């Protein structure tokens, strides 16, 4: 399903970018990074708009906490669809599907939501590692394996 | 409108232009006739959007209208040669007017009116003849001065107008009168709208004509005509400004075109026409405010034609065409936004410009793959020469419909020509301009990162077209943002490209800066070849040309080497790099060892250096820059006393810098401003790596070092990471070594001048000079503003302005200085006095230092005594009120609270106006009385009220006590005043004076008189009774009434005879006022008061 999954820190620095590509040449990695990086524009726009809505009425503060972490489809290009998810600590999760492959183009929103929730859980597990420095890139091979699995399993 | 780059796919202007109804104006001589000029200007100038959608064309007499083609009765044998004729639109929008308006000057009352009518009719006739065959409408405008009334109210005018209409053979509603004298613009706008209606009528008629053709057509041979006719209908409706009908017809045209059989020979034509129709469709959809439909239309359009690529050797044409579709749509979208259409981040024109750029890139790729052989333009005859009658047809085979090329050789030459043209085409410039449009759109719609990506793409494009300087500028700006967000992979990509650009354009400053950053551990370089980069830095440092970057275009290499040759031994010799803003291979942390230094201490700064790139780095010089309020100093960083040292990776180096602060900096802050490392290869060139330290930046990048314990990293890294930079320190003044002792007798008493003696002893190792002692009162919570209630002085009894300053010239070593100050306060609270001592000292160093020390002393103030007062009448009975002229005694009682024995020097009572002292000569009874704690001294003063005041008095008067401490003989007396509370004063119409003996003997008659005195101006009548008792017999009137005359007295005499011994109650007089009863109470009271309660009766002893 997914061709690329990214975890982005609260300061918008990449913590993890994993992709399943047929080739791992620099060009592919580069286009993947561009894709995820530009998705931040849409993500930030969503966050700003949801914040201003809540900011108008402080009484709704509780509602913002209960805000759905899944932001849905951020934008789509000719070749890819990009979905976003933001945790309460402003860690941003991005999932990219290919709209050219049949499995990617027909994906349902609920599936993406589930996948991103699972990714959130995996991320939480990964940073529970006391040897992980918060804010650093996630280098855990176990996390990498699990994420790759997640991307493939959901096909 | 954004200027779009041009190429062969550009839309012709007649497609892009807004289609407006064409109206011809004839008979206006704008050159010679000012009125005509004004009319023409009013029609043609200042066409705002709210005016009718018409276009005016000035027709002169020689204007030639297109010849009408002979009407075809049957299409049976007609085979169309193409889809859309190129000249048709042009004819419609600028040659065939819908209406021709003939302007003619004539007044209704003109004497030669009939001749004029005939002339006008002949003009109309000639125009009619010129447009023979066209259905063009004719209208006549009579230009008048406006002086004569309108024809409807003017018989002659109406008549003549009628004549004119019939002469010209026009309907009366096609005749207009234009008065030009005033309100010209208003008339013009009304005329314009009328013309517009006539024009709409005309176009409607024209569409009917075209619709009639349809019945004659058949699908097999006339497919092109289906498209053409629908397009014409659409266009005419557009001119009529009926957009929805126009859209309907264009849509038919579009769909008919899709059904057309497509072969390699007509693909270009179909594509071109489809593009135009699609453009028209989208434009109308935006005009109808259906932007979603417009977007959907474009998507479907691209989807349908995406795979109709045509002949592969002309693949680039296909991509060029797609790119043009996108960019044209982007322009339409942009225009619609400017006209008020809202757009959002995920749907705005930028995307379409981006697609246009992307497809242009594809076009270039296609060109590279198919145009390799087109090395030169084919020999003449030029296949590109030739006139094409239809849109999208090829000049070398105009109007040919057959699918197979009739002349393979010519076809080949033509393809070669197209390929050659494509080869020489500058794709980069068109891509750059598309990207430029896209970038500005993405910036508008809050997509900074998308914009950045496009800027990088643009820079790449500049790189491909060898404009390295521009590429470098763009890339270095973008690098900043990727670095800030720590997208190192992208940053590396940008940096490597920038490094290539810097090399190719031989910009030394950028080249070095980028190379230094490339050595950072965050940056990946191609082939992981960082040592090459390091050697290049060293090469530039020693004024040698660096080795070339990998993967650079060979064509630019020679130029680059030439550039390097020119600049390598020239400026800039000093390359300074701002290291804080880039990621680098040399990291610096600097900290003050303490956050506070005394001015006489040496300040120490630790500088930690870590090299993350595996190299042996020679540092020529390193400098630490420190700034204070007054100056900035540079301190060399040295290793083992040498300013030249080398660094190796794997160790954290620590350098210690020491310096002394100057006296001026006392109390201010010092900041580490900069650390510079200088590389120098003993040639002219230097590289200065500056680490500017800004405090606000440090806080951001702070990681808790505690967390680093867990990280599996080299130990040296841990050491370095744990260091918390401390970039500012405070300079405090030198510690003062003076001591102070204070002698005083606390607590102080309220109101006294309380002496305090302080002694300053110099404990320094040398004499101190210019000692200044400043005494100030300090506020405290229980005494917030002490200066208002407390006085300070150096002389007893003379208040001085605070703060007090004492200047002492010099105090020698181990000597002391002492002085006394006096303090007087009226508030019973503690008072704090600050004694600030400042002095100059000259220690071993040459500099003179100023030292300051604050001492404080706290003085508690208590009340010396408390005064209470009692009131007694002359019988020594407690009273609560007194009567006018009735004397009583005030007994002030002084309760001593002071723990120090006091001497009461004198006392007196200062009474208020309505009282007076009863005794003529008053001397205090407690004069010169020594008292000590808990003693109570009582005084007594006899006082009499003079009159009854109008208002109740707050007090009788002030009781003044002059006192001092008993043991301080010389001290001044203190005068303390205490208010004595008031006593109610009442007045009585009479006064009573009773004389009776204090003591009587049993069985002995004694006289007893009572004098009643009138106090008012009127006589008072009293009823008197004697209230007898068992203890006495008495003689005199028992019950009677008397009149007391004003201000005179009456004496009543009785004899009383005591019957029993002991304390007895004598007979008493009681009075009632006769008449005026409200004074009764006072009278009763005064009688009560003056008659004795008891008389002591002595028993009689028989001797």
TrEMBL record, chain A:
Keywords: Endoplasmic reticulum, ER-Golgi transport, Golgi apparatus, Transport
UniProt record, GO biological process: endoplasmic reticulum to Golgi vesicle-mediated transport
Annotated compartments: Cytoplasm, Perinuclear region; Endoplasmic reticulum; Golgi apparatus, cis-Golgi network; Golgi apparatus
Pfam families: Sedlin_N
Xref: SMART domains: Sybindin
Primary localization: cytoplasm
InterPro entries in the record: Longin-like_dom_sf, Sedlin, TRAPPC, TRAPPC2L
Single GO cellular component term: endoplasmic reticulum
Family named by the database record: Belongs to the TRAPP small subunits family. Sedlin subfamily.
Quaternary organization: Part of the multisubunit transport protein particle (TRAPP) complex.
Protein name, per record: Trafficking protein particle complex subunit
Organism this protein belongs to: Leptosia nina
Source lineage: Eukaryota, Metazoa, Ecdysozoa, Arthropoda, Hexapoda
TrEMBL record, chain B:
Domain Trafficking protein particle complex subunit span(s) in chain numbering: 267-520
GO CC, any one term: cytoplasm
Pfam family, one: Foie-gras_1
PANTHER family on file: FOIE GRAS, TRAFFICKING PROTEIN PARTICLE COMPLEX SUBUNIT 11
Protein name: Trafficking protein particle complex subunit 11 domain-containing protein
């Amino acid at each position: 399903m997914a061709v690329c999954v990214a975890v982005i820190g609260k300061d918008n620095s990449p913590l993890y970018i994993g992709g399943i590509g047929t080739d791992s040449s620099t060009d592919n990695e580069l286009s993947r990074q561009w894709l995820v990086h530009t998705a931040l524009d849409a993500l930030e726009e969503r966050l700003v708009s949801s914040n201003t809505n809540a900011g108008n009425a402080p009484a709704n503060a509780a509602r913002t906490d209960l805000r759905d972490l899944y932001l849905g489809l951020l934008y789509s290009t000719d070749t890819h669809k990009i979905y976003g998810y933001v945790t309460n600590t402003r860690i941003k999760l991005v999932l990219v599907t290919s709209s050219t492959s049949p499995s990617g183009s027909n994906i349902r929103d609920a599936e993406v939501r589930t996948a991103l929730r699972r990714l959130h859980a995996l991320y939480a597990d990964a940073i529970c590692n006391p040897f992980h420095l918060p804010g650093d890139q996630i280098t855990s091979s176990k996390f990498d394996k699990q994420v790759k699995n997640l991307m493939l399993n959901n096909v | 409108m954004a200027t779009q780059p041009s190429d062969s796919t550009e839309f012709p202007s007649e497609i892009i232009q807004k289609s407006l109804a064409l109206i011809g104006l004839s008979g206006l001589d704008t050159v010679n006739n000012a009125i005509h000029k004004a009319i023409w200007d009013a029609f043609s100038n200042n066409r705002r959007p709210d005016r009718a959608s018409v276009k005016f064309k000035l027709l002169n007499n020689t204007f030639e209208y297109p010849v009408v083609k002979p009407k075809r009765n049957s299409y049976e044998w007609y085979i169309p040669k193409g889809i859309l004729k190129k000249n048709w639109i042009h004819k419609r929008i600028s040659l065939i007017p819908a209406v021709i308006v003939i302007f003619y000057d004539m007044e209704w009352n003109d004497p030669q009116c009939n001749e004029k009518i005939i002339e006008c009719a002949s003009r109309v006739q000639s125009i009619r003849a010129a447009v023979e065959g066209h259905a063009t409408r004719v209208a006549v405008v009579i230009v008048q001065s406006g002086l004569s009334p309108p024809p409807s109210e003017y018989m002659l005018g109406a008549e003549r107008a009628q004549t004119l209409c019939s002469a010209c053979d026009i309907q009366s509603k096609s005749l207009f009168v234009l008065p030009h004298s005033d309100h010209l613009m208003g008339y013009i706008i009304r005329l314009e709208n009328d013309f517009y209606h006539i024009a709409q009528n005309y176009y409607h008629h024209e569409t009917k004509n075209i619709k009639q053709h349809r019945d004659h057509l058949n699908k097999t041979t006339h497919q092109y005509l289906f498209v053409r006719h629908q397009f014409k209908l659409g266009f005419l409706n557009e001119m009529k400004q009926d957009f929805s009908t126009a859209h309907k017809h264009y849509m038919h045209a579009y769909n008919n075109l899709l059904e057309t059989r497509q072969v390699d020979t007509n693909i270009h034509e179909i594509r071109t026409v489809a593009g135009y129709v699609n453009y028209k469709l989208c434009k109308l959809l935006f005009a109808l405010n259906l932007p979603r439909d417009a977007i959907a239309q474009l998507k479907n359009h691209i989807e349908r034609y995406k795979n109709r690529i045509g002949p592969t050797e002309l693949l680039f044409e296909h991509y060029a065409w797609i790119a043009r579709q996108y960019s044209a749509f982007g322009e339409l979208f942009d225009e619609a936004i400017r006209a008020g259409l809202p757009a959002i981040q995920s749907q705005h024109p930028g995307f379409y410009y981006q697609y246009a750029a992307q497809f242009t890139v594809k076009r270039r790729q296609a060109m590279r793959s198919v145009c390799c052989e087109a090395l030169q333009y084919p020999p003449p005859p030029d296949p590109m020469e030739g006139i094409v009658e239809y849109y999208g047809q090829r000049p070398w085979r105009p109007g040919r419909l057959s699918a197979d090329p009739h002349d393979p050789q010519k076809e080949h030459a033509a393809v070669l020509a197209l390929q050659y043209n494509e080869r020489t085409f500058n794709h980069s410039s068109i891509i750059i301009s598309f990207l430029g449009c896209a970038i500005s759109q993405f910036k508008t719609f809050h997509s900074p990162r998308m914009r950045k990506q496009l800027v990088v793409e643009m820079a790449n494009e500049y790189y491909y077209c060898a404009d390295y300087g521009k590429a470098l500028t763009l890339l270095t700006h973008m690098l900043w943002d990727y670095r800030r967000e720590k997208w190192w992979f992208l940053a590396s990509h940008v940096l490597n490209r920038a490094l290539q650009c810097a090399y190719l354009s031989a910009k030394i400053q950028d080249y070095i800066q980028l190379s230094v950053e490339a050595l950072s551990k965050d940056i990946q370089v191609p082939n992981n070849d960082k040592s090459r980069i390091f050697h290049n830095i060293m090469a530039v440092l020693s004024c040698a040309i660096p080795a070339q970057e990998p993967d650079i275009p060979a064509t630019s290499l020679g130029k680059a080497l030439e550039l390097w040759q020119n600049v390598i031994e020239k400026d800039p010799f000093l390359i300074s790099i701002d290291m804080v803003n880039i990621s680098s291979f040399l990291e610096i942390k600097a900290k003050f060892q303490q956050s506070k230094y005394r001015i006489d201490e040496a300040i120490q700064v630790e500088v930690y250096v870590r090299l993350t790139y595996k190299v042996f780095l020679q540092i020529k010089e390193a400098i630490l820059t420190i700034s204070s309020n007054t100056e900035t100093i540079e301190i060399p960083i040295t290793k083992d006393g040498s300013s030249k040292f080398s660094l190796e990776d794997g160790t954290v180096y620590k350098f210690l810098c020491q310096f002394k602060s100057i006296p001026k900096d006392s109390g201010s802050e010092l900041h580490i401003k900069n650390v510079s490392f200088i590389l120098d290869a003993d040639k002219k060139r230097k590289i200065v790596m500056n680490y500017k330290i800004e405090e606000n930046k440090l806080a951001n990048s702070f990681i808790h070092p505690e967390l680093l314990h867990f990280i599996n990293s080299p130990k040296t890294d841990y050491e370095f990471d744990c260091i918390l930079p401390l970039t500012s320190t405070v300079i405090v003044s030198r510690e003062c070594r003076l001591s102070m002792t204070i002698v005083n007798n606390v607590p102080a008493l309220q109101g006294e001048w309380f002496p305090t003696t302080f002694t300053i002893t110099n404990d320094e190792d040398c004499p101190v000079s210019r000692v200044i002692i400043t005494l100030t009162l300090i506020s405290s919570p229980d005494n917030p503003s002490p200066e208002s209630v407390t006085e300070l002085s150096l002389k007893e009894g003379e208040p001085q302005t605070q703060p007090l300053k004492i200047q002492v010239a010099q105090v020698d070593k181990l000597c002391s200085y002492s002085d006394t100050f006096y303090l007087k306060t009226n508030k019973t609270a503690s008072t704090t006095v600050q004694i600030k001592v400042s002095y100059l000292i000259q220690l071993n160093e040459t500099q003179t230092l100023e030292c300051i020390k604050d001492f404080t002393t706290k003085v508690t103030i208590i009340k010396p005594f408390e005064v209470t007062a009692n009131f007694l009448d002359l019988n020594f009975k407690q009273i609560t009120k007194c009567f006018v002229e009735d004397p009583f005694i005030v007994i002030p009682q002084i309760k001593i609270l002071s723990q120090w024995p006091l001497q009461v020097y004198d006392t007196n009572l200062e009474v208020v106006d309505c009282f007076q002292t009863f005794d003529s000569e008053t001397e205090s009874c407690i004069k010169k009385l020594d008292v000590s704690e808990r003693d109570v001294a009582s005084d007594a003063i006899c006082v009499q009220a003079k009159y009854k005041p109008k208002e109740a008095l707050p007090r009788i008067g002030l009781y003044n006590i002059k006192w001092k401490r008993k043991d301080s003989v010389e001290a001044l007396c203190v005068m303390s005043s205490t208010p004595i509370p008031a006593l109610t004063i009442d007045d009585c119409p009479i006064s009573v004076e009773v004389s009776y003996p204090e003591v009587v003997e049993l069985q002995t008659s004694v006289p007893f008189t009572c004098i009643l005195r009138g106090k008012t101006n009127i006589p008072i009548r009293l009823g008197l009774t004697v209230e007898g008792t068992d203890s006495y017999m008495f003689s005199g009137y028992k019950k009677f009434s008397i009149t007391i005359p004003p201000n005179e007295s009456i004496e009543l005499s009785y004899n009383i005879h005591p019957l029993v011994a002991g304390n007895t109650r004598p007979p008493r007089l009681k009075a009632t006022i006769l008449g005026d009863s409200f004074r009764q109470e006072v009278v009763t009271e005064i009688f009560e008061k003056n008659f004795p309660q008891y008389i002591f009766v002595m028993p009689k002893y028989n001797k």
